[in-house]
Amino acid sequence: MPRTLKLAAAQMGPVHLTSTRTETMDRLLTLLRQASTLGAQLVLFPETALTTFFPRHLITSPDELSNYFDSASTLLTSPNTAPLFNLAKELNIDISIGFAEWDESAAAGSVAGANVKGYNTSVYYSARKGEIVAKYRKVHLPGTVEPFSNPDAVNQLEKRYFAPGNLGFQAFRAPDLVKSVLKKGGHGVEAKEDVKGKGDPILGMMICNDRRWVEGWRCYGLQGVELVLCGYNTAGFAPDLWGTRKPMTPEEAETDAVFHHKLCMQGNSYMNSCFSVSAAKAGMEDGKYDLIGGSCITSPEGHVLAEAKTKGDEIVFAEIDLEDCRQGMEKTFDFGRHRRIEQYGLITTQTGVVEPELLG
Amino acid sequence: MPRTLKLAAAQMGPVHLTSTRTETMDRLLTLLRQASTLGAQLVLFPETALTTFFPRHLITSPDELSNYFDSASTLLTSPNTAPLFNLAKELNIDISIGFAEWDESAAAGSVAGANVKGYNTSVYYSARKGEIVAKYRKVHLPGTVEPFSNPDAVNQLEKRYFAPGNLGFQAFRAPDLVKSVLKKGGHGVEAKEDVKGKGDPILGMMICNDRRWVEGWRCYGLQGVELVLCGYNTAGFAPDLWGTRKPMTPEEAETDAVFHHKLCMQGNSYMNSCFSVSAAKAGMEDGKYDLIGGSCITSPEGHVLAEAKTKGDEIVFAEIDLEDCRQGMEKTFDFGRHRRIEQYGLITTQTGVVEPELLG
């Protein structure tokens, strides 16, 4: 029995330091209405969808910084954010969206930077419940705490403003998003009786750089995830501060960044037998920072099913059947039969690289 | 300072049940000589390169089964295997080759099948040392212990004949394979003094199905691996015993299998900042089992640098610079700065899938 889902990524063009919250909200609402005309049941918006990607900037004023953050507890009531959730409810569309989560207690976490104000967060809103049913805080924060001294550098100060996510990779069920129930079976075993509730899809959220880290994908895979959602802001080109990169034109660098993005989404979807959807904030932000597009939907076989054609506001849409996850889950990637956890110890006991001893 | 390595995959066409060891050895020697004319310093041969891929067959006679196995301790002296290592020594080429390793004590391991005779193994032979300097035993054994009842099935009885590898993913140094030394540095830090011996490349071996499992790659990545070697025998098409696969022609299935192979090699190379080389046994074995080609060399940026054009005996060659690993290792994938092992617990504590609770 198919478990079809009409799925959309709402890619956004640039949002600038000078963009007002009202302007940006109007664009989000327009994208949601466009997705609705296609029949979308679930729409993913990008990382930090409400503002420019401010971690590029060294912002020292707490007041200024607070403009880029929102509190998770007031998302459904604040005039800055409520209109999007209200429209999602009205259109009966589940949404997931990324934002900078204000939580000063995060400063007490493992990062010492005095400007840590919270987390790089995404939430999942169930239109049927009228509630936020899941929250994810970005685990893999890229970049540095301190800005580069090189004036040509593109800063990435996520480690300065955010604490690493402390909620883990917690898969969750999207209530009544898909109505039909799942027939279990496989391995030639006769199909078991239908189980009420099995049809609620198992989802997982990640944010931007997380998609490059196999650990998050695998933690979700071990919870039977059927669809991974990932919003992002990814620079197409940055000066080579490490001096280790082959020379590239900005165009070549952008092509390579899109290739890497898709390689991660495709490869990890295949190796965890799940669909994925990714939504970019794209284009030239603040006249200087060129972000890649490439928002896409990938299948459990690792194929790209739909892909953005622009670097602006654009809906990427596909109708998927979550049952397509079963082929991988029950055969090649049947974790219970094939994984050998006694050999994986390094992954959870050692953070960085320890090279084999030098030879004499 | 570049650390260049002339690297080859020796793809093999089919080896049949009726092929003699002498015939197969002659082909291996020819491939090694061809690689030598290109200047190769390291040649990778496929999984079970010495025989047909016998785990497709239910073989009940211990005597018959023993024909497909070799003892690791006699590789350099047995007339069945010594000629290859002797020629490698003569040509000053390091080689890595897969074979079924006879070790009856493996039956005492965690697999109950009475026919377990050993391991699916590969070794690394250093021509400069004249010794086997590393051994790997395949961890992720695909397939089943018992054959399928369906006569159309393509059996994959690796779990019957082999115990899961018990040597872990142990990276190792290839003695004097690359002469120059590595200048450490990066992150804008001034380059440290050259360190004697740093230039010996860090390698890791995996076998066939292992390449689909991110855990092995990451264990190697955590040891600073610069090159992963992977021999394989991969069916292009098999009947859909699970009833979960979309209908495909054999041609479509083969295209998809090659796509998945390359996706794993490219994605995992990128996400671990290492090169990889893979060598297939390809073509129609025993008139019935059609194996994919697709032997390739991939870069730390996830690009395919060289790729087989045939499904027969063929050398795939590239000259690589191991210093190209540094870009990823020191920036995007600087594990020590970015990994968050406190969030990865499921990977080593839970083998199979545990789904989130059903919603009421």
Feature tags:
homodimer; 360 residues; alpha/beta; seven-stranded mixed sheet
Give your account of this protein's structure.
Chains A, B: Keywords: Hydrolase. Chains A, B: GO terms for molecular function: hydrolase activity, acting on carbon-nitrogen (but not peptide) bonds, in linear amides. Two copies of one chain form a homodimer. Chain A is an alpha/beta fold and 360 residues long. In chain A, 22% of the residues lie in helices and 22% in strands. Chain A contains nine helices and 15 strands. Chain A starts with a strand and ends in an 11-residue tail after the last helix. The relative contact order of chain A is 0.16. At the A-B interface, strand 7, helix 5, helix 6, helix 7 and helix 8 of A face strand 7, helix 5, helix 6, helix 7 and helix 8 of B.
Mean model confidence by pLDDT of chain A: 90
Which structural class fits the helix and strand makeup of chain A? alpha/beta
- H/E element sequence of chain A: EHEHEHEEEHEEHEHEEEEEEHHH
Helix content of chain A: 10-25%
By DSSP (H or I, 4+ residues per run), the number of helices of chain A equals: 9
What oligomerization state is this entry in? homodimer
Task: Name the chain pair with the biggest interface and residue counts per chain.
Answer: A-B, 88 and 88 residues
Q: What is the end-to-end distance of chain A?
A: 62 Å
Overall strand count of chain A: 15
